[in-house]
Specification:
Elements lengths: L1 H13 L20 E5 L10 H5 L10 H7 L4 E3 L8 H13 L2 E3 L2 H7 L4 E4 L15 E6 L1 H15 L2 H6 L17 E7 L8 H10 L5 H14 L12 H5 L1 H10 L7 E5 L1 E2 L1 E3 L5 E3 L9 H7 L4 E2 L5 E2 L12 H5 L6 E3 L10 E3 L3 E2 L16 H12 L2 E2 L4 E2 L10
Helix pairs in contact: 4-6, 8-9, 8-12
Amino acid sequence: MSKIIALFMSIIMFFIPSANYPEAQKAENTPTDYSFVFVHGLSGWGSYDLAYKIMPYWGMFGGDLMQYLNARGFDCYSASVSGADSAWDRACELYAQLTGTKTDYGAEHSARCKHPRYGKDFTGKALVPEFDSEHKINLLGHSFGGTTVRLFAELMANGSETEREYTDSADISPLFTGGKADMIYSITTLAAPHNGTTAYDAQAAIEADKNSTLRERATVKMFLLASLKKNDGRIDEDTVTYDLHVDGAAELNEKISTVDSIYYFSYACYATKQQEDGTYKAEDDIMEFIFVPAANRMGSLTGVSENGIIKDESWQLNDGIVNTRSALHPDNAPYTDFDNNNINPGIWNVMPLYHGDHMSLQGGMTKNNNVRLFYVDLLNMINSIKQSDKTQSAFCSIQQKAD
């Protein structure tokens, strides 16, 4: 699926003139300078994939964002995890890539979810040169990549009690033993569905509506194709679809803690505008055309989930795929609005809203989204966090596109 999307996008880009973006430089003498690992979202791809050579996931419109940032002195990498599997499976794949080992999904998990225990082997092909408490990493996750890095951090910090009880100590993956929180410096989520998304409700509404347009129905098929679970007999709870529904996301949130030693930052996007009747409609000039039908439906939906989660009007503002309120922070996690002079670990630092659709912070598809300076400023800020006994501060400001 990722190869098809990359090929489709490369054809589109052939007809779109490349943009000339202003240059930016890395700040000098920053207190911290750890590697940055970018994790893609649903149906995405990374540097291990052939699709990345055809069309980079990060910086589609303006060229490979990793190359741009590395040329300016940052140490950046693009991970490759499954485009359609659960957050658990993706977290296990991320660990294997970072450590240069064979993917181990866990003895208990694989038996319960009915799929092989082991996956791709990255022995001798580690994503980063060094990964330990002296060589920490900063994780950045776009969309479902944000969910992935959150669960990865939870496993690194606390492991899995279920896997420890089920598996012999000599056979268990180090990922499930915990005690590795000090190997992660920060987590930044970009348009991540922390609390799930009502996009599935929107797609269901389109399918059920006899008056829905051909364009709406076409986007339904594209969306469903991207989120189909593998047809290999695994249980529903081990799929991206389950994790993205609001009930599944709430269950996952109960399993993921906010680690005291890790800095957390979140960006939520919006590309819909409130109408006179109170609902929200897509801003066509900044939203990718394939997102517009779902965005409009999401902008008017309310309801209650099967498990009783109320989806009221606060869920209607969205970026075309993810509800803006869902991307702010996990509902059960501590949070605060970002304060450049008071940045603390163990709490979500919620950044100002970013005016753009779901793909904007990735660089966009057919829309011209210049995020190069955005990432230079963001990475400089993370590098410049100064630690003290009680508070942290930062001297680099974040360039915002927010209104």
